[in-house]
């Protein structure tokens, strides 16, 4: 079986999920070519698992000072280049196209009449009844046409009684020497704004990873770190809490290791607003709408979360993909959720309480 796997490169969440999938696909002997778009080629890091991957410009949102800048997003979008990349990508040799919200591979496959299976967090907002916030008509159209697919599997923290699969979490070996440090990852905020927020808390040490940090340094209880996947995962294992934007993958990783979460969603980005709303409803995170010192101080006094044993091995999903019968994903969802011990929370969508999925 030969697969083309398209991954959205904006941020690190999609790449993190793809690393877990790439390992499982390799272990099953599947031949996979990887395509990334949405980021400058030199900005990717720790990409060894993807072999000789390809990159395209794709489409991405421009953000400034923790907000989506829609004017700059439209201005910098090169639709002509996108169309040229789509037309140039030959997908004829592939048996299956996997997609994680990546437009070049999705549209190239559609033009060629190839089947696309979308495995992404974005899919939960188009095909399932889950909590959402700020999901406008325009957002729905973007979700529908950005990376079209014949079959979509949404990835989420809770199944909501729908055909949704759980996140797969790649963990470092547990570190015995835990610390009281706070891990900070807010790539959509300016580093100076993050430092201003943290400077008010002199009794705590913060470890800040940020793509704009070019050299490791430390001053006044704030350690600045350059992007490094291995170092980041080690800090995640040992820290006492995580401050982040409301991306999906990092929140998933923090929940898996039982770390309390303080989230500041990217302003103007409905997905992050919806993520923050969901985790707040489930009692799994605290949300601040701005870089709020008072909210930070209150959150620092909270205890850690109960860890959720999300799976680390997507082998059942890979086996399902290899088998080739995609007509009824319900059995796959049941198999993936059954061993997960979820906290006792009341899940609702709108005014309706969610019925649990039947796990047999």
Describe what you observe in this structure.
There is one protein chain. The protein has helices at residues 13-27, 70-76, 79-88, 103-112, 124-127, 137-145, 191-198, 229-238, 248-256, 270-281, 293-300, 315-323, 330-337, and strands at residues 2-8, 31-37, 54-56, 63-64, 67-68, 96-100, 116-120, 151-155, 164-165, 182-185, 206-209, 217-219, 222-225, 241-244, 260-263, 286-287, 348-349, 352-353. The protein has 360 residues and is α/β, with parallel strands linked by helices. A hairpin with a 2-residue loop joins strand 17 and strand 18 (352-353). The longest helix has 15 residues, at 13-27. It is globular and about 60 Å long. Helix 3 packs across helix 4. The chain folds into two domains: 2-168 and 311-353, Rossmann fold (3-Layer(aba) Sandwich), CATH 3.40.50; 182-300, Rossmann fold (3-Layer(aba) Sandwich), CATH 3.40.50. This is Glycosyltransferase.
Defining traits:
Rossmann fold, 360 residues, seven-stranded mixed beta sheet, 18 strands, globular, 2 domains, disordered C terminus, seven-stranded parallel beta sheet, alpha/beta
Brief overview:
By secondary structure, the chain is α/β, with parallel strands linked by helices. It contains 13 helices and 18 strands. It starts with a strand and ends in a 7-residue tail after the last strand.
Q: Give the helix/strand class.
A: alpha/beta
CATH topology of the largest domain, what is it called?
Rossmann fold
- Count of individual helical segments: 13
Distance between the termini: 30 Å
Q: Taking Cα atoms only, what radius of gyration do you get, to the nearest Å?
A: 20 Å
Low-confidence runs: 354-360
Q: Can you summarize the main beta sheet?
A: 7 strands, parallel
User: Can you tell me the overall shape?
Assistant: globular
State the domain count.
Answer: 2
Number of strands: 18
The helix content is 25-40%
Overall pLDDT confidence: 88
Level-1 CATH class name of the largest domain: Alpha Beta
* Widest sheet: strand ordering: 3-2-1-6-7-8-9
Strand content: 15-25%
Please identify, by name, the CATH architecture of the largest domain: 3-Layer(aba) Sandwich
Protein name: Glycosyltransferase
InterPro entries: MJ1255-like
């Amino acid at each position: 079986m030969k697969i083309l796997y398209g991954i959205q490169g904006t941020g690190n969440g999609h790449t993190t999920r793809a690393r877990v999938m790439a390992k499982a696909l390799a272990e099953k002997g599947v031949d996979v070519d990887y395509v990334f778009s949405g980021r400058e080629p030199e900005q990717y890091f720790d990409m060894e698992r993807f072999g000789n991957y390809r990159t395209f410009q794709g489409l991405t949102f421009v953000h400034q000072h923790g907000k989506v800048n829609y004017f700059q997003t439209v201005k910098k979008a090169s639709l002509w280049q996108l169309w040229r990349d789509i037309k140039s990508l030959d997908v004829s040799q592939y048996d299956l196209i996997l997609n994680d919200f990546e437009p070049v591979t999705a549209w190239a496959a559609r033009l060629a009449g190839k089947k696309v299976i979308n495995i992404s967090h974005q899919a939960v907002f188009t095909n399932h009844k889950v909590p959402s916030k700020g999901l406008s008509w325009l957002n729905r159209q973007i979700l529908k046409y950005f990376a079209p697919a014949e079959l979509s599997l949404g990835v989420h923290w809770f199944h909501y009684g729908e055909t949704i699969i759980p996140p797969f979490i790649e963990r470092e070996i547990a570190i015995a020497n835990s610390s009281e440090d706070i891990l900070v990852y807010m790539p959509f905020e300016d580093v100076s704004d993050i430092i201003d927020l943290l400077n008010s808390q002199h009794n705590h040490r913060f470890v800040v990873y940020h793509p704009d940090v070019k050299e490791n340094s430390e001053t006044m209880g704030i350690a600045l770190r350059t992007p490094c996947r291995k170092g980041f995962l080690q800090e995640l294992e040992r820290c006492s809490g995580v401050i982040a934007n409301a991306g999906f993958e990092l929140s998933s990783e923090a929940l898996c290791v039982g770390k309390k979460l303080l989230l500041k969603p990217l302003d103007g980005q409905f997905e992050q607003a919806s993520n923050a709303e969901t985790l707040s409803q489930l009692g799994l995170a605290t949300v601040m709408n701005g870089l709020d010192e008072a909210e930070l101080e209150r959150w620092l006094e909270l205890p850690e979360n109960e860890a959720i044993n999300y799976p680390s091995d997507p082998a059942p999903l890979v086996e399902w993909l290899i088998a080739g019968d995609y007509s009824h994903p319900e059995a796959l969802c049941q198999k993936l959720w059954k061993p997960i011990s979820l906290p006792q929370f009341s899940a609702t969508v709108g005014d309706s309480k969610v019925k649990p999925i039947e796990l047999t």
